[in-house]
Design goal:
By secondary structure, the chain is an alpha+beta fold. It has three helices and four strands. It has a four-stranded antiparallel β-sheet, with helices on one face. Strand 1 and strand 2 form a beta hairpin. Helix 1 runs antiparallel to helix 3 and helix 2 runs antiparallel to helix 3. The longest helix has 71 residues.
């Protein structure tokens, strides 16, 4: 069974090599060579065909692409979430600054300390209001980006789960045939 978010290793297919003499053939299985009597050649060939290594390879390739897609979309969603939070913090900071300007600068109890003229304070208030409006537009834009990124990450996660199930099913079929081949190779064959 394949593990989550790890790229598995594709198992190698079994291969039959015919021998012109001796009434035997060579079965190459899991990086080992077995010399097996010809009477098991047809059975081994059918098991190799049943293992459906080509289907396993297709499922494997889809699964590897799904892993990469999931990683990429997950990191994109994280960046979008971070950027949205940063914009929210900036807007809150600007609103606090505007609130302080509306209330005036208070230092040491009830004494109001105003170092700027009233016109300068009003200009600062207007600038902050414009910056807050810009920040709100930025938040709306980044919210849309985050929603798209979350949607993409959700789709990638669903695709990952689907391809993982397909790969595991193909791997089970492959392993069942390989187990039978191992049994024949170890019980009837001779390791070379």
């Amino acid at each position: 069974m394949a593990q989550a978010n790890k790229v598995p290793v594709l198992p190698a297919p079994a291969i039959i090599y015919g021998q012109p003499i001796g009434g035997v053939f060579v079965l190459f299985l899991e990086n080992r060579r077995y010399q097996i009597p010809n009477q098991f050649k047809e059975t081994c060939a059918q098991l190799i065909q049943r293992s459906q290594h080509s289907n396993l390879k297709l499922s494997f390739d889809k699964f590897v692409r799904a892993i990469e897609e999931k990683k990429k979309s997950g990191s994109t969603a994280d960046v979008a979430k971070y950027n949205l939070q940063k914009s929210n913090n900036k807007k809150e900071q600007l609103e606090q600054q505007l609130s302080l300007l509306n209330e005036g600068y208070w230092v040491q109890g009830d004494q109001q300390f105003v170092s700027d003229s009233v016109n300068q304070i009003e200009t600062q208030k207007q600038n902050l209001a414009i910056q807050i409006g810009t920040a709100k537009n930025d938040i709306a834009r980044k919210s849309t980006i985050q929603e798209k990124a979350d949607s993409t990450a959700s789709g990638a996660s669903e695709n990952y789960n689907k391809t993982l199930a397909e790969y595991n099913k193909a791997l089970e079929i492959f392993e069942a045939s390989m187990n039978e081949l191992r049994t024949i190779a170890t019980s009837r064959g001779r390791l070379l």
